Amino acid sequence: DVEYNIQMSDPQMPILISKLAVIELCGWIEESYDDILYGYINRRILDPKCIRIVNDIIKNNYGFSYEKHTFKIFSTVIGVNNWENAIDKIPLADFSQFQAILQNYSTIRNSAAHTHSPVGTTRSFDSPSLVLSNFYKIKNAVFVLENEINTL
Question: Per residue in 1-21, pLDDT tens?
């Protein structure tokens, strides 16, 4: 965020720093999901063939929008009933915010990762401070999910 503010006079650097912040947040979300799910597999699944199949399912999940990716991957790996029980532990307001931020950053991340910013454009992304604020808004929900899934 400090570097972002220092670079405000440059037309490109704030955009690049913002894109980096967005991609870092999204990477944290995806890596957190992978860590939670691989941990579950290592603790609960014994058959090597099942482990291979489930690992392939996780590896082929690119994204984290709630319905298309998050719900699908967690309910597939740990079961819908276990997923329902885990999300029930997240306060409703936090869960709603979690879903909204996942959906929003899924779209923002795709734009940040799959486009360039030609010189002279006014393309913008969330500032690093806003990205960090949104991280703190979903961090607790991810930790609750991790704790609940670790108890399965």
Answer: 888 888 888 888 888 899 999
